[in-house]
Amino acid sequence: MTAMRVDAKVVMLGKESVGKTSLVERYVHHRFLVGPYQNDTAGSERYEAMSRIYYRGARAAIVCYDLTDSSSFQRARFWVKELQNCEEHCKIYLCGTKSDLVGEDRSLRQIDYHDTQDFADGNYSLAVINLLLHWFLYWYFTEIGAQHFETSSKTGNNVDELFQRVAEDYNSTALQYMSAEETGVDLGQKKDSYFYSCCHNN
Question: Which superkingdom is the protein from (predicted)?
Fold first, then answer.
């Protein structure tokens, strides 16, 4: 069975310091580097106009936010809106980063959509807030048609799963399109394919 290479433009967007570079480092090099990263142009608001050049023509976008920083989720919503307005064919994946931190200390979590433990703990006011946030996030993810992952670049949790899903979704779409274009090709035929990502870390 002949392998086929599929090229796709995948971009990463998000507020400065949400962990975009760490996410790529973990996936590509299987490592976690501690320390500040420089030149995060697309993470900075002053480079927003420049960033539009990077995601032009993108077929997939991983929009990152920090689970311990609620303002980063607001920035993520900005990028989602930008993509919807400018790149209607770009599939969006929302990625909550630094899940290891909120796993170690639940009080650090500022973005949550599944936490019901507060009811069991007797924190009813907090539980109601989390429940409302749960329904808002569920509605938001459904409204924008995005898949959602919570990841940790430190532990590697869900990192491979995120990129694998991006690859599988794009390959599936690309294969369907190419099969429809080829004469005499059985649409049910299974093909092996490799996913090659031109990943702009923005």
Answer: Eukaryota
Position 191 scores a pLDDT of 39
Find all residues with CB under 8 Å of 26, minimum gap 6, and list them.
32, 153, 156, 159
The rounded distance, in Å, linking the Cα atoms of 27 and 113 is: 25
46: tokens are 């002053």
**Average pLDDT over the chain, rounded to whole?**
76
Give the domains, in start order, of the chain with CATH numbers: 4-109+145-201 (3.40.50.300)
End-to-end CA distance of the chain: 36
Of residues 165, 177, 68, the one with CA closest to residue 112: 68
* CA distance linking residue 154 with residue 159, whole number of Å: 10
- Residue 150: helix, strand or coil by DSSP? strand
Query: What is the reported pLDDT for 200?
Result: 45
**Separation CA 161–CA 143 (nearest Å):** 23
List the one residue out of 102, 148, 106, 152 whose CA is nearest residue 127: 106
